Amino acid sequence: MNRRIFVKKGSMAVCAPAALSMMGPASLAAVLHDSAASAKPEWLIRLIHLNDDQIKEALKHRISDADHPSFGGFADAFDIVTSHGTANFIKMALCSLLSPESNYYHNTVLSSQITDATRWLLKIQNADGSIDLHSTNFNSPPDTGFIVKWLGPPCKMLMESQLPNKQKLIEPLKSFLQKAGNTLIYGGIHTPNHRWVVCAALGWLHMLWPDQRYVQRAEQWLAEGIDIDEDGQYDERSTYIYTPLTNRTLIVIARAFNKPELLQYVRKNLEMSMYYMHPNGEVATEASGRQDKALQGTMESYYFPYRFMALHDANGTFAAMCKVIEQTAFEQIRYSSLHNILEDKSLWKPLPGIKPLPDNYVKEFKKTGIVRIRRGNYDASLISMNPVFFTMHKGNAVLQGIRVASAFFGKGQFTAEDIVKEGDVWILRRSLQGPYYQPLEANQVTGDNDWKKVPRSFRKTSEVQHLETEIRIREIAGGFELDIRIDGTDKVPVTVEMIFRPGGSFSGLEPSDALEDTWLLKGESATYSQGEDRIQFGPGACAHKWLRLRGALPSMGTPAVFLTGFTPFHHKLTLS
């Protein structure tokens, strides 16, 4: 029989476990009884097959020697057997084991490997129920929460399944998860998002094995309020990693503890996040306060929140976001969302009618200090309090950032104090001073020749030098003009650094004699191309070749183009 036909018939015939509906506040705890909802859509079956492929890769890292102390666990790229890698395998494996469309459906070998992995987790679990994140956090309640949050949905699917001998899998999982619950009831956290990870983990435990202690602990964290600003951004501004994570956890918390009011925060962030998407489906990360700052990333981690809220609100714009994510990052959806989607069958329903996404706008997010401008196939970010103050995407041709530096007392790396709009111009400014210091007054002299005993701020200053940087950005036809003006102390060396994404090609530039992957812009115009997409920029300036100024930030390890000069430095740079 043709495998595709078999898969379709199998998906129609199997009676998957009922899931709690999230389609409205009144039905957050209601059970779906519509058997038609059991039929998996084609896109979900594709994700299951991709998950099968990932299991094959994961099994290459399994400790299969029964005499090895870490038997059943999974090693990382450094040959360290980790709780996170092992738990991730259990999550993936259960998703396939319980899906009739999978090559691993009810596979006894895989079932045994899941049991071995769970027993290893039990073996290395700390006495208080916590696990270690070996790279940084030990006896860690929040990292325990991450693992519980991963394992909750497939464990629920397992308990409701028709898998033969399923108790052999359930018992060690239950032991691990309930023991983990003990540390989540009392344990602390590090970061804002950890609160919601812990609450979501408590929510899954409460749905599996109801316990008022889980409810009470979640209420303690929730009493602090959700850390979202008027722009719709969470405190960490981590648009690639922790913002979509927070959305996912709030949805789980809303469901587990019947708190539909939490969905307003998810909705607000998703409305904002549409304006953080580049034309090629990537997400703007330059303003992040976490480790994803300036990382290249797509929006797959938003898929579950956008799909959930599109269905919950009958929101056609959110549905359009789902379609864009499917087109630009489909294979990655399985990592953060497959286990949640498989468990909640309400998410299998067709999306509401698509409405157009915004693709021609200027949006200022004051709290985050970022302005997002999009005009069809290109967009730009203007960013305050960040050495990278301007980025531009034109299809797949990406200017990852512009930085301005000066050799001014070792502190000349420009960061804008704020962004001010005057007419059609956005203005970024910063003022610096470089003083010299006078001898101490007689009553300040310590007598022991210890320079550090009297702070430099106690000394009178003289010969104070000044540096005023102002960058005026305005839109022009097909792009932007940056008017860069640096005044004050004369003859200060200056650089303007344009940082491009690796993989493209340049024309109209002169390579640097001293630095690899670095060019000088001397002529009137140059071009950066990535496939059919290109960014044209110029004119150039090259008054010197000192590119890594004292006090400037080091290279970002990507292709860089420099303009150079001395103060007073006045230069207009156009990009189109």
Structure description:
With 576 residues, the chain is an alpha+beta fold. The protein folds into three domains: 40-224, Alpha/alpha barrel (Glycosyltransferase), CATH 1.50.10.100; 226-358, no CATH class; 360-442 and 452-575, Beta-galactosidase, Chain A, domain 5. The protein is built from 13 helices and 21 strands. The protein has helices at residues 3-13, 42-59, 83-97, 108-124, 141-159, 167-186, 192-208, 212-222, 242-256, 263-273, 303-313, 316-329, 333-343, and strands spanning 74-75, 81-82, 131-133, 137-140, 360-365, 370-375, 378-383, 390-394, 397-406, 419-422, 425-437, 461-476, 479-488, 493-500, 505-507, 510-511, 518-520, 526-530, 533-538, 560-566, 569-575. The strands form four sheets. The protein has a nine-stranded mixed beta sheet with strand order 5-6-7-8-9-14-20-17-16, with no helix packed on it. Strand 16 (510-511) and strand 17 (518-520) form a beta hairpin. Helix 6 crosses helix 7 (192-208). The longest helix has 20 residues, at 167-186. The chain is globular, with a radius of gyration of 28 Å. Residues 1-37 have low confidence and may be disordered.
